[in-house]
Structure formats: structure tokens, C-alpha cells
Structures
1.
Amino acid sequence: MPDSKLIIDPKVTYTAKVSTTKGSFTIELNQGETPKTVNNFVTLASKGFYDTTIFHRVIKGFMIQGGDPTGTGRGGPGYKFDDEKFIGTYTRGTVAMANSGPNTNGSQFFIMHEDQDLPPNYTIFGHVVDGLDTVDAIATQEVTYGDSGEQSTPVSPVKITSVEIVPSVTVK
């Protein structure tokens, strides 16, 4: 990671307000359970990394995926970091790291559109607590076949315009 020091305060809870060209949604971040992953997301968001990226992979009834600066599904921040142990399931609104195998997390993340029974291979670091209608609007857009042969490439991709990190209540 470019800045391995912890920029989040473990005594504070954080939310991320994600604004897109389809509306906004709010993610409650789970730094208590996955501090390294939340720290990575907060660091990237604070530097404007996600601004102007798109949701490049969209599968109605499954998930929406973004966070790739190239928009291809193959890009990232230029580094990878290890998975973190977590407790959780992939229910509607769950936010987790996308990866290409164990310990290959970077900047890409996905949000569950509906509940799915996935193996615990993707570090869960948050949950959408407001704006699921925006997630629905992104998940139900028209898609076509991409380079991988999967029908998940948006015809008119939704762009993230900003991610605002908001510190909340102090944890005791």
C-alpha cells in the first residue's frame, strides 16, 4: 500500500457517502472487524481515487462492481494487500472487496444486489445503510457482453462522482 499507516481512528465509526450519476448511497464501514480494508478504502476515497470511476460489472440479482480506474475490471491502485478475517454473509447491500484470488485486494469492490451464498473469499468491509434504490438503479441498467464473455458490461456505465468519508460516533 502506498501509505501503510493507519489513517482511520479506531475509536470512530465511519460512513462513506457515494455519489453517482444515478443517485447516492451510504455505506457504513466496518473498521472494527476489517481495519486494514476500511483504512485502504478511506485512504483511496480521501485522495479522490474513486471519483470518475465507473461500475464496470453489473449483474442484476447478484451484484454491482466498481473501483477500477481503467474501467476494465483489471485495474487497481498499483498494489495488493492481504485478506482479513471477517464474520458475515453476502446479503443485499453488503460491500466487499473484489479480488483475483487470495490476498489480491486493491481498489475494486462490489455491492450485493440480492442475497447470495458465496464462499468467504471476499473481505466484507461495509453495508449500504441508505440508498438501496440507487444500488437497484445501477443493478438493473442495460448490459451487454464484455471481453470475458459475461453479460455484465453496462451499455451506459454509471459513474461515481465522489466518495465522501464521514466520521461518526466515537466508539467506547
2.
Amino acid sequence: MVSESANARSEKQLDRVLGFFPRVEAKASFLFAVNTGMLGFVALNMRKEDFEHWYVIALALAFLALAVASIVYVYRCVFPHLVGDDNSMIYFRSIAKQSAKEFGERFTSRTDIDHVNDVTEQIWRNSTILREKFDFLKCAFMLTMLSIVPWVATMAAAAQLRSTWPLK
């Protein structure tokens, strides 16, 4: 028999873990916007003749590689690998595999210990997903920060070639 406090504690911990997901998602959305904005800025400001110079090509490719790699990590953050217990009464994919009637019967007939065990397994699984999401987000942030240098250098080189550099 599981105490009411153990049940409440497990539910509270699950809510706490789930509360971190919107934070990661918001940061990932921000990074996606920054990366696409930087890519768009390059696309709109570069001219065909800018790519006649090897250093512009090298800088642009360095920026492009870092920005695209960052976007890949943002994608992996937003869409992590989801695998759950097929017997879970909490994991949304497991629930969706059942009919509404089957889910209702199974959920209401389970014991308190089964429920607490299911909740704690879900806490663990969500924590591993969250760890992956934060790791992917960290890599994406680092790649975006690294891409700023070649991005600025690309824009400066293109501006200098067109004599729009402010120091000329």
C-alpha cells in the first residue's frame, strides 16, 4: 500500500519535471529565430559578385556550416527521441494506442502502487528526455555564438567590396 503523501510527492515531482520543458522550448525557439534571421540577412545582403573572392566564400561557408549545425541541434532539441513504456497509463503515446474505453478501464482499476510506480517511471523518462533537450540546446547555443564571428566578417567583407564600408 502506498501512502497518500508518496502519491502526492510523485505527482508533484512529475509536474516539476514537466515544468522545465517550456523553458527549453522557448530557448530553442529563440535560437531558431536568431539562426534564420542571420541566414536571411546574409541571403538578402550578399551579391553574386561577392562570391568572386575566396575569403568571402570561406567566411560565408564557415558561417553557413555553423548556422546549419545549430539548426540541426535545435531540431533535435525540439523533437527528441521519444520511447516510452507501452503499458504506461501516463505516457501519451501509450495512452493513444488504446481505445478510450480500454484506457478508462485500465486506469481506474489499477492499484495505488501501480500508479506511483508508473508516475516515477515517467519522471525518470521525462528527466532523460529533458537532459537530452538541454544538451542539444547547449550545443546549438555554442554553435550560434561561434557563427557570429564569420557572419560579421562575411558582412564586413561584402560591404568593403562594395565600398559601403563606413571607414572608406
3.
Amino acid sequence: MPSDSNNLIPQTFKGLFFTTSLANSLSSNILFIHGFGDSGKAYNEVFDSKLADLYNLYVVDMPGFGSSPHNLSVNTMKKQANLLTAAIQSFSQQPIVIVAHSIGALIGTWMCQLLGEQIKYYFNVEGNLTEADSYFSSKPLQYDTPNAFFEDFSQEVFAKAITEERYRRYYASLKWATPQAMVDWATSSQAFVKDNLCGKEFIQLDCAKVYIWGAQDTPMETQDFIKQYQIPNKHFTGVGHWHMHENAEMFYKYIQERLENL
């Protein structure tokens, strides 16, 4: 947990749970969106970073993940993007920075489309650019029931967590996930993953943006896509999928520097 948890404020909006840290009412807001089966705990270190002194931080648990209950009325990623947009606008009208991880970056991209000029910067962290990136999020489609998928997937992640530190926090978040919520993300994302539409939508965004990646887990198809379309990007050597806690100090320092140099 962040070291100064007394400064953290829980907030809710129509079933969405946020952990927030407010620097100044006139500061920009930074919204953090987690990935498949994960939770806001993926971003714990941000509250100990310099960003917490400079910006208002909003770390969300999406419906069915972390502390947010599964919500049948918003059972697609598109609907959740609309809900999250309404939430962040209800908190403040200040400029918005989005940091979105993995398949959660689909939601981040759609929010950038919805919010337009209110977006100050978009940090896409190992998000889906090509079909190859859906190596986790497409797995529920291989099973007959959400529970059958969840049991196998949990065992797979647990086995990796035994030897790989980076999977341990993910496993802890996964235990809070609702199996149906994971299926919702898998089924509702497929049309946008197909034919690399997710990557094309990211390219078309007019806002300031960057794609953050490491070669350890980024498929070659996606690495080639980045080069082919000259996508603004930042490569961190030797870092895997979860830059936010595998490489926390450099990751949050990089975000701070990019925002300072706008």
C-alpha cells in the first residue's frame, strides 16, 4: 500500500470505486485505468511519486474488478468508457491526463475520442495495438462458462506468481475479479481488436500521446506495427507488462517529465 494512505480519498460514481489523491483544485487530473482481471492496485506506487504533489490522481476499479461491483447495465467496454467519462467530468472540469494499461487502453482511447480537447496527454501502457496483444483478454472465449475459464486462468497466473514477482500483485487483484466481468471484456473487445482496429484508432487520436512498452512481453507484430506507423513511443529495456510496479520509479518520473515539457 502507499506509504501515506491517510491522504487517499475513496470516491464513488454509479458503482465505480476510485482511490484519489488531490493536490490542488486547479491542477490537471490524471486518471489511471487498469487492465484485464487487474485492479487499481496496479498503480499503488503513484501515490508515493512526485505526481501526487503536482496533480489530482484518480485510480479506478472498473466494474467487476477490485472494489467495484459487476454492473449488468454497463457490460461492454464501450459502455464503461462512457460511464468513466461521465465520472471524471463530474469530479472536475480541469484538463485530463489518461494512463491506461493493457486492454484497458481501449477504454482510454475511447475516452480520448469522447473528451477531445479536454485531454492533455494520453499514456498508453502496453495497450492493444494489434490482434497479437490479446493473448490474455481473448482466453475466456475458449471456455463454455465464465467459472471454467476463471479456474484455469487463476491456476495459470498462480503458477507464474510462484517464480515471477510481477505476477503476484496481479494474482492478488485477480482474486477480486468477477469471472463474468472478464468475459464481458473479452467478448466486447473482439470487434475492436480484429484487424488491428484498436491500433488504428490510437493512431488517429489528435491529442498528445505516447505508447509505452517493453520487449519482454510486447509481441513482434506489435513492435513492427509501432515502427510501420511511426507511433510515438517509449521503450523501457528489460521491463515486462506491468511498468507501473516493475519499473515504478522510472515510469512515473517519465510521465512527470513529459507533462512538464508540454
4.
Amino acid sequence: MAQVQASVLAWIHLLRVHHQIQRRETAQLAQYNLTLPQFDVLTQLSREEGITQQCLADRLLVTKGNVCGLMDRMVEQGLVERRADPQDRRAYMLYQTPKARALMQKVAPVKQKQLLALLSELDRALAAE
């Protein structure tokens, strides 16, 4: 019984940490007029452009419907370009725009620094236990 309680407490602690990280990330990205899902999209397209919306949905662990609405907004903002897939006229391939690339050049180093600081905090917390 004590082991179950410890597991549940560990799970609750992880959820709280996740929530705190997500709040920090959301606030930081808002300075660049980006949401966390938009940053995730641009990160994926930085790794590989020309992927389909279905491939992006699979990588983000969301539905194609979620990606479709997100892409509509990002196209409207000038961050993503949809191009018809030459092999499947029903599908679109996704590309970053020059505006998105410039934005990611600003955001990526900040996010990298934040991640390193967070990992350093976790290392110190684990060492203290």
C-alpha cells in the first residue's frame, strides 16, 4: 500500500512539474507571439520540411483535425506555407516561411538556454535528495 501511495505521489509531482514548465514556456513564447503548439510545429518543420499534415499530426501526437486548424492560423500569420503534394493531390506538404525561419533563429537559442537551466535545476534537486 505504501508503494502505491509513493507511486501516486510521484505521478502527482510529475504532473505539477509539467504544468509549471508549460506555464513558463507559454509565457516565454507569448513574447514572440507564438503559442506552444505553434512552436512545436515550427520545431518539427525545422527538422524536416515538406512533411504532410498527417505526418506532422503523428509527430505531435494529435489528430489531423487539430493540425488542420492550427495550419490555417499559421498560414494566415505567414509562418507556414502549404504546397500541394505532387504524389497525392488530396494532401499538402508543409514548409516554413522566411518569417518563420527568422523567428526560430531568435526563439531557438532562448528555448535552448531555458531548457539547460531547467535541466540544471532538476540535477540540483535530484542531488539534494
